[in-house]
Design a protein that fits this description.
heterodimer; A: 313 residues; globular; B: 275 residues; mainly alpha; 0% strand
């Protein structure tokens, strides 16, 4: 989770009325193109070109002949395709519901019910595991889930997980992946939500208090509705990222000695197509499915929310 | 609240304590006990011996990949964000929209297509196959863009032009000196993201000598007797060594997290705290 939007409602304060009439239309002239040149080359080479090339591969076969939607129907008909999408669907539901409920409740509690000093310490503690994102977090959780070494060993045994083999049962994967994602990612979002809550003016909260609203009512009727756009933003980003799972199930597959399917997530299936079956066209077709999912999420966010500032009005 | 904090903190504490114990103590002693400092030394020598200093090579590789792409990211995203915010040119809005969309899309969506592209151009296994894709960082461009758009009044730029500054002088003498906070922010996110990245190097670097430390950790995992009794048999890589490897691997990022938290949090919410 490294994506953070900046609030345009406040940044708009700094924007000024445009003075197109008084100034040359293209301020900066040719120099502007030089300033954006390096970035544009990278964007073309590692954003646009790979997308186009994947599209080309997905619509052709290994001899470069156009095959229409055959690659798509081939991978969609693969017996591993639907289960992979079902797996991430289960994970995503769990992850999104818990992420929204827990981050919002925690941020509200930190903002309204905890002393500022303690609140800042707690935010830091929640946030810290973010440094272990990626492989490190999975390895740490492999230990946390092994009852013989885990500090939560007694807890694991109490719920019937007597051995590492038992906890790493393939059917537990959505929960395990959720725990890992929550551990590394929730803290950053709590910080963002807390910041958003901090922006609600004291007057509004004071007015609610005067009207006799308690903490719960204030949270439910005032604070949470006022940070709704941040909740939407977080949900869409978390959803988009969740569809792309690769590292975590891949490592769990290694650690489970093969009990977890090597094609648990769609990205893993694409990987198997490319690296084990040598079928780059099929792999590209799966990537296109995932790309479209990501594009839809991004499109919805850009078009429907006022989080991003494109033009100074 | 406290229970919640435990969930976040306990694994970190466990991780920091594990290398001080023997493999046996890790299993039999209280999970949050401290072993001894000399044991950390033993774990370290076992770890270093793995494939003849592989861990150090991986750390060096990670530094090259993350550092190299950091330089390229800053060199491209700062001028681009500046031009998008403070100049007007044909194609500006298109470039902004494409930037927004690519920064929201998870970076993993493009990894396999980028692998296919690299494969087509025979760049697999080269340093550039990692550094160049890492350098493409639309979020950095957006951060710089929003920073200049909100904190550098266009009147100043216009005045400088009237005083006879060239576009390049306006950028280097006026914009760049003001950009320090946002440069730090872009550098942090880019470095942390690339240091922790696994998927792309895992696909494009076939050779263990070229692995960044994240991919190296994966190899260590498959060489640990606890997780791989066959391949790991006879190796000295047990839980304390693995825990120590994790700590070493994330140390640069952890240090950044510890020392830049305040700046970071205010940066993350730069727009919303200003108003």
């Amino acid at each position: 989770m490294t994506l953070v939007a900046l609030d345009p409602a406040t940044s708009a304060v700094a924007s000024r009325p445009s003075r197109r009439g008084a100034k040359p239309r293209w301020e900066g002239g040719i120099a502007s193109y030089l300033f954006v040149a390096g970035y544009t080359v990278l964007l073309a080479a590692f954003g646009i070109f790979p997308t186009g090339y994947a599209l080309y591969l997905a619509f052709t076969n290994d001899r470069g002949q156009f095959v229409g939607f055959n690659q798509f129907s081939k991978v969609a008909g693969d017996y591993r395709f639907l289960p992979a999408f079902e797996n991430i669907a289960v994970y995503l539901i769990l992850w999104l519901v818990m992420l929204v409920v827990m981050t919002v409740l925690t941020a509200v509690a930190l903002r309204s019910w905890v002393r500022p000093g303690l609140s800042s310490l707690l935010r830091f503690l929640y946030y810290l595991p973010g440094a272990l994102a990626g492989v490190a977090s999975v390895l740490v959780w492999l230990f946390m889930l092994d009852p013989s070494v885990s500090p939560a060993g007694p807890l694991l045994r109490a719920i019937g997980q007597d051995s590492f083999a038992a906890t790493l049962n393939p059917s537990h994967l959505p929960i395990i992946l959720f725990l890992i994602a929550f551990w590394t990612g929730a803290g950053g979002w709590i910080v963002v939500m807390y910041g958003a809550l901090n922006n609600i003016s004291e007057d509004v909260l004071e007015a609610a208090r005067m009207d006799g609203a308690g903490r719960w009512k204030t949270a439910w009727h005032i604070q949470i509705p006022m940070i709704r756009k941040w909740i939407t933003y977080m949900s869409i980003l978390a959803f988009a990222a969740g569809t792309q799972l690769f590292v975590e199930p891949q490592l769990l597959q290694t650690a489970s000695l093969g009990r977890v399917s090597p094609t648990w997530s769609p990205n893993q299936l694409a990987y198997v197509y490319a690296f084990q079956q040598g079928d780059f066209n099929g792999a590209a077709a799966i990537s296109i499915f995932l790309l479209v999912l990501g594009l839809v999420c991004a499109g919805v966010l850009v078009a429907r929310s006022d989080l991003f500032k494109l033009e100074e009005q | 609240m406290a229970g919640f904090a435990l969930f976040f903190v306990l694994p970190v504490i466990w991780l920091l304590l594990a290398p001080s114990k023997t493999a046996d103590q890790v299993v039999h002693d209280w999970p949050l006990s401290f072993g001894s400092f000399s044991q950390i030394g033993h774990a370290w020598s076992h770890l270093i011996a793995f494939q003849n200093h592989a861990l150090l090579r991986w750390m060096r590789n990670s530094a090259i990949y993350s550092g190299g792409s950091l330089v390229l990211t800053l060199a491209t995203s700062v001028p681009a964000g500046y031009a998008l915010a403070l100049t007007r040119f044909r194609g500006r809005t298109t470039l902004l929209v494409v930037t927004l969309i690519s920064m929201i899309m998870p970076s993993a969506t493009l990894v396999l297509p980028i692998f296919l592209e690299m494969n087509q151009f025979h760049l697999i296994g080269t340093v550039w196959s990692v550094i160049l894709p890492f350098s493409f960082y639309p979020f950095g461009v957006y951060l710089v863009y929003i920073y200049f758009a909100t904190s550098l009044p266009r009147e100043i730029i216009a005045a400088a032009r009237i005083d006879g500054c060239t576009e390049w002088q306006v950028f280097t003498r006026i914009a760049l000196p003001l950009a320090r906070p946002v440069v730090g922010l872009v550098a942090f996110f880019s470095f942390v993201g690339n240091w922790n990245n696994f998927f792309l190097p895992y696909l494009v670097l076939p050779n263990s000598d070229q692995f960044p430390v994240q991919v190296g950790l994966n190899q260590l995992l498959s060489s640990t007797p606890s997780f791989n009794p066959v391949a790991g048999a006879g190796l000295n890589i047990t839980i304390p060594e693995l825990a120590l490897a994790i700590i070493v691997a994330i140390l640069p990022v952890l240090v950044l997290f510890l020392f830049s938290q305040r700046a970071l949090v205010s940066g993350m919410l730069a727009g919303s705290t200003k108003g």
